[in-house]
UniProtKB/TrEMBL annotation:
NCBIfam families: met_pdase_I (TIGR00500). It comes from the Bacteria. This is Methionine aminopeptidase. The gene is map. Keywords: Aminopeptidase, Hydrolase, Metal-binding, Protease. It comes from Virgibacillus salinus. HAMAP family: MetAP_1. The keyword Hydrolase applies. It catalyses: Release of N-terminal amino acids, preferentially methionine, from peptides and arylamides. GO terms for cellular component: cytosol.
C-alpha cells in the first residue's frame, strides 16, 4: 500500500534527515587512506546513539551493521570490514536513520585520497544523474519519468544503470511501495501525488549494469569488476516541487 505522509510525519522525517546529514558530513571528514569501513560503522552507531537515534537497517532482515559500505566494484549492501581503504578507492556509505519514528535514507560515494580521472567522472555522473531524477519528482509526473531522466543521462555519458536494485517509498518502515526504478520510459508508471515520500538512489556502473551476489547474500557487485557509485536522497513530493530531507548542500 502506498501512503501519503501528513505534515507531522514529514516534519519528523525532516528531523531525521537533518541528523543524517550531520552524520554524513562527519563521515566525510573521516574518509582517507588507512581507515577501515568498520571504524566508520562504529562511529555512525555511536553518533546516532548520542543524538537519540538508531540505525534503522541494523537488524533489518538480519542485516548486522549500522551502515552499508560498498567499495569499488561493490554496488550496494557492502559489509563494513577491517580491511583498510587505500588511495584511489571509492566507497559508498549508505545509512537509514530513525529519530523518534521518523526515517531518512541517504547514500554518498566518497573518493579515498586521489582517484583517477575515470573514477572522478563516474562520481560526477552518478551524482548528476540523481539530481536529474529528482527534478522529475513532481506532483502529476510518473515514476517512469524519474528513471528515464536518469538512464538517458547516465548512458549518454557512457555508463550503465543498475536494474536489480531500485529506490522505494519510505516511512514508517525502510522499504515501502512504490518501487522507483532508475531506468524506464517517460509517461509510464504510477503517478506521483503530494505527500508521497520516496528515495531516489541510482547505482551507476563503469561497465555492465548486471550484478552478482556475494556469499553473504547481501553484497551485490558488478560482474566485470567495474566500479560502481551511488548517491541517494529521501525526497518528499510537494505541490512546490521535490523537497530533499537529506540535502547536504553539496
Amino acid at each position: 500500500m502506498i501512503t501519503r505522509k501528513s505534515k507531522r510525519e514529514i516534519e519528523k522525517m525532516q528531523q531525521a534527515g537533518d541528523l543524517l546529514v550531520k552524520c554524513h558530513k562527519e563521515v566525510a571528514k573521516m574518509i582517507r587512506p588507512g581507515i577501515t569501513t568498520l571504524e566508520i560503522d562504529t562511529f555512525v552507531e555511536k553518533f546516532l546513539a548520542k543524538h537519540g537515534a538508531t540505525p534503522e537497517q541494523k537488524g533489518y532482515s538480519g542485516y548486522p551493521y549500522a551502515i552499508c559500505a560498498s567499495v569499488n566494484d561493490e554496488i550496494c549492501h557492502g559489509f563494513p570490514r577491517e580491511q583498510k581503504l587505500v588511495d584511489g578507492d571509492i566507497v559508498t556509505v549508505d545509512m537509514v536513520v530513525n529519530l523518534n519514528g521518523g526515517l531518512a535514507d541517504s547514500a554518498w560515494t566518497y573518493p579515498v585520497g586521489n582517484i583517477d580521472e575515470a573514477g572522478q567522472k563516474l562520481l560526477n555522473v552518478s551524482k548528476t544523474s540523481l539530481y536529474k531524477g529528482i527534478e522529475q519528482a513532481q506532483v502529476g509526473s510518473r515514476i517512469g519519468d524519474i528513471g528515464h531522466a536518469i538512464q538517458t543521462y547516465a548512458e549518454g555519458e557512457g555508463f550503465s544503470v543498475v536494474r536489480d536494485f531500485t529506490g522505494h517509498g519510505i516511512g514508517p518502515t525502510i522499504h515501502e511501495e512504490p518501487h522507483i526504478p532508475h531506468f524506464g520510459l517517460p509517461n509510464k508508471g504510477l503517478r506521483l501525488k503530494e505527500g508521497m515520500v520516496i528515495t531516489i538512489e541510482p547505482m551507476i556502473n563503469e561497465g555492465s549494469w548486471h550484478s552478482k551476489m556475494d556469499s553473504n547474500n547481501w553484497t551485490a557487485r558488478t560482474i566485470d569488476e567495474g566500479r560502481s557509485a551511488q548517491y541517494e536522497h529521501t525526497v518528499v513530493v510537494t505541490k512546490d516541487g521535490p523537497l530533499l530531507t537529506t540535502d547536504q548542500d553539496r
